[in-house]
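Troubleshooting: if your tokenizer reports a length mismatch, compare your output against this known-good record of 285 residues.
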Amino acid sequence: MTAVDALPCVHDLSPAALRELQAEAARAHGIEVRFSDPLRDGGVGPELVVVPPGQFDQGAAADETRPGELPRRRVRIERPYAIGRYAVTADEFERHARGVGLVWADHLLRAEGRQPVINVSALEVADYLDWLSAQTGRRYRLPSEAEWEYAARAGSATAYCFGDRLSCGEANIGALMAGRQSAAGWRGWLPFCVPLHRVCEVGSYPANVWGLHEVHGNVWELTADRWQGPVDPANPGAGRNLDWRVSKGGSWFEGVRDASFAARRPRLDNELDTNLGFRVLRELD
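Known-good structure output:
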């Protein structure tokens, strides 16, 4: 049996076994499961969590696939990596902006503090990742779609990391629905969910088994992968010659289905939006 064939299928593992697999990968690299890299300017980079190698089923089941989604297939993640515990925050991006003299357009709505940074294009994200790599001496990049979904699932084979349903206590999404668990604050007293209609601070909702927060809702997250095929099923010729890339996770603006693991959306390289952010990947090898 080859090393690749020996990769565990994470869907077969218990939460305890998944966490031990994660801990083993961290020990093999002499790091903690959760860590941050120091920056040369005296600060620290985004908080990261180690993701172990393994196999998983990416995409949607054949009877559940919507236009634009990938059919389910087995994918191997052969090398461990570290990924952002949260989406990159406004404060984290602002450190880069000050360092390189980035001037924000006056008309853009800006996030603050620990809210995910928004209204940044994929081109500006690339500049941030180059800056972060230079500051830390480590290679930072966007995750591929498979790397993003593998880390977000953290062994889950269901539509969401919490099961096949999602409640307002588990994600910031734009839908009215019955609550399956209590939400924080005044919303916990209502028999239904009330959408916030805005981005919320990272860490406001429960983490998955590997410690990633807000993998459902809040902001769509850019990946490194280019979109293949039409961007609009109703108009197959639209957008074919433009630079589109895949985003994942749903947001505060969309409903439950768009926050599922299988959901994906095309985004232009120069696109700015109040519900679009990103999560970093840091290579370990």
